[in-house]
Each structure stands twice: as C-alpha cells, then as structure tokens.
Amino acid sequence: MNKILKITLGLVASAAIVACNQQQPAKTTTNNEPAAKTEAVEKNVEKIVYVNSDTLSEKYQYFKDVRTRLEAKVKKAQNDLQAKGQAYQRELADYQQKAATMSASERQATEERLVRHQNDLGRMDQNASTSIAQEEQTEFTKVYTAITDYLKKHSEEKGYRLVLTYSKTNPAVLYADPAMDITNSVLDALNKEYKDKNAAKK
C-alpha cells in the first residue's frame, strides 16, 4: 500500500537549550586577563555538550517500542487493504466472465456495486494513512518531550548551557569532540526512567 507512511525518526532529539542559573564571578582587571579569558572560554566550552540522535533512535527503549507499535499498525492496515483488494479483484473478474449473459439492469447494478467497492478501498487507504500519520506525530512528540524534559533536568544538575544533537545521517554539526558526547549517560537514564514508569503501571 503506497500511501501508508513509513516510520521514520523525525522528532527525536532536536537541540535543547538550557540556561544555567549559576552567577558569574565579578570581573576584575589583572595583568593575567588574557589567561583569565582563556579559562572562561574553556569553562563555557565544557558547558556545551551533544547527544547522538542515531544512538537514541537505536537504543532508547521507549522509541523502539513506539516504532514497533506503529510498524505493526502499518502492517495490519496493509494486510486489511490487500485482503479487501483481492476480494474486489475476484468480484471484478466474476463480473467480467458473466457480463455477456447478464441483463442490462443486472450489469448496471453490478457495475455500480463495483464502483462503490473501489471507492470504499480508496477511502480505507486514505483513512488508514491519515490515522497512522496522526498517531505517529502524537507518539513521537511524546518521545521528544520525554527526552527534552530529561535533558532540561540533567543540564540544570550538570550546569550545561547548550545541548546539541548530532547525527551522521543528517549532520547539522560537522564535527563534534567525543569528549562532549553525553549520549550514553543520557540513554542509560532515559531507559531506566522508562523502565521504572512501565513497572509502576503494572
């Protein structure tokens, strides 16, 4: 079914900007001002980190569960449409074989029924595509919210000023120092949080 949407990662891990509430020390003028500026720049650099969105999409259990559910719905919709399409093709073939022996009124009634059946297939296809697209947007928005909510909390604890996203498949950042990569710690915390929430529901 061509119109059924493929499941893609569109929403996960866009950049989350978090302000740090720590106050800067009062500026003083000394002979070592260039060294002080260098140190300040280095401290600010340390407060910029990134998360690898490719890794999140592969290993974040919440995202994997959502993707699996949506793929199952796509497959079911495809199977349902295929079954109804095959029934329509059988009905059409039967009509073509018997058309010559039908009366004019029988042919007209059968043709009208076939047209209705064909229109029903088109509506079924469109409705399934729309429904899955809406659910995909809703579910991945929830995943995105879970990630950004955690990153806000994590950044406040660590004093990060900026959290970027990095992806080899869609690079917005051309180079990222591995020392600034916090993906694994974020991934571990997200998976634990998701596991704990699921355990609480049971």
Give a brief outline of the structure:
The chain is mainly alpha-helical and 202 residues long.
Report the strand count: 3
Largest β-sheet summary: 3 strands, mixed
Q: Strand pairing plus helix content: what structural class?
A: mainly alpha
- Tell me, rounded to a whole number, the average pLDDT: 79
3D structure, described in words:
The chain is mostly helical. The chain has one domain. It is built from 5 helices and 3 strands. A 3-stranded mixed β-sheet has the order 1-3-2. Helix 3 runs antiparallel to helix 4 (104-158). The longest helix has 55 residues, at 104-158. It is elongated. Keywords: Coiled coil, Signal. InterPro entries: Chaperone_Skp, Skp_dom_sf. Residues 67-127 form a coiled coil. Residues 1-18 form the signal peptide. GO terms for molecular function: unfolded protein binding.
Write the layout of secondary structure elements.
Layout: E1 16-17, H1 33-46, E2 48-52, H2 53-59, H3 61-98, H4 104-158, E3 162-166, H5 183-201
Helix pairs in contact: 3-4
List keywords for this structure.
single chain; mainly alpha; 3-stranded mixed β-sheet; elongated; disordered N terminus; Chaperone_Skp; Outer membrane protein; unfolded protein binding
